[in-house]
Design brief:
Structural class: mainly beta
Strand content: 25-35%
Distance between the termini: 42 Å
CATH topology: Sortase, Chain: A
Radius of gyration: 17 Å
Helix content: under 10%
CATH architecture: Beta Barrel
Strand order of the largest sheet: 1-2-3-4-9-10-8-7
Order of helices and strands: HEEEEEEEEHEE
Length: 224
């Protein structure tokens, strides 16, 4: 069997931007990421010393002002993602689609590769937080997001889309959260710009439970 992790779902009262095919009731149910254990696991762990699990919301990205156009958010039209590249950690992966199970949980990749994009949220480059999840390892060995925790602020994430465009993001923060302190509103909530959240397992692997104790979340913003 593989190693497992989980991320709590968005708060039930939080308003988030959803794909028309997905209801708010469904997404508010347990979200299970990257072959994860049940989201209500209460595991003791310590966050990375260099991170802060209670930080201010990610600021909006603005386009460069010109004489012809006012400053405003960088936004792209909807287009499904096909590929993710993070050169700094050697990631170059196709993207599969992740929907919801009959129980309302997020579908997860069934192997170490590829990563998956949650189709119930915005496409990368659209207004709102696009979500991509992946394993750090699996029964077969290292996973697509093995080195996700090594991403640094300012690293580039490139998402190739079906319309031929490439959405380019810059990371603004990398944080590690204990499962019982996961910032669901910050990760899944409405934002006023095009954002990206990369999520995987993190922290110590608890051999007695068979689960990782933390989640790693990379926050990124679309750039021009």
């Amino acid at each position: 069997m593989g190693r497992f992790c989980s991320a709590p779902p968005p708060p039930r009262k939080m308003r988030i931007r959803l794909h028309p095919r997905v209801t708010a009731t469904a997404i508010f149910l347990a979200v299970i990421l990257a072959g994860c254990a049940p989201a209500d696991d209460k595991l003791d762990s310590q966050p990375l010393p260099a991170t802060n699990a209670t930080h201010a919301p990610v600021p909006a990205v603005t386009a460069k002002a010109t004489a012809q156009a006012p400053t405003g958010p960088v936004i792209m039209v909807a287009s499904n993602p096909l590929r993710i590249q993070i050169e700094s950690i050697g990631v170059d992966s196709d993207l599969m689609e992740l929907g919801l199970t009959d129980e309302g949980a997020l579908e997860v990749p069934t192997t170490a590769f590829p990563a998956g994009w949650f189709t119930g949220g915005p496409t990368p480059g659209e207004l709102g937080p696009a979500v991509i999840a992946g394993h750090i390892d699996w029964v077969t060995g290292p996973g697509v997001f093995l080195k996700l925790g090594q991403v640094e602020a300012g690293d580039e994430v490139r998402i190739t889309r079906t319309d031929g465009t490439v959405a380019v993001f810059r990371t603004v923060e990398v944080s590690q959260y204990p499962k019982d302190a996961f910032p669901a509103a910050l990760v899944y909530g409405n934002i006023d710009h095009a954002g990206l959240r990369l999520i995987s397992c993190g922290g110590a692997f608890n051999r007695s439970t068979g689960h990782y104790e933390d989640n790693i979340v990379v926050f990124a913003e679309l750039v021009a």
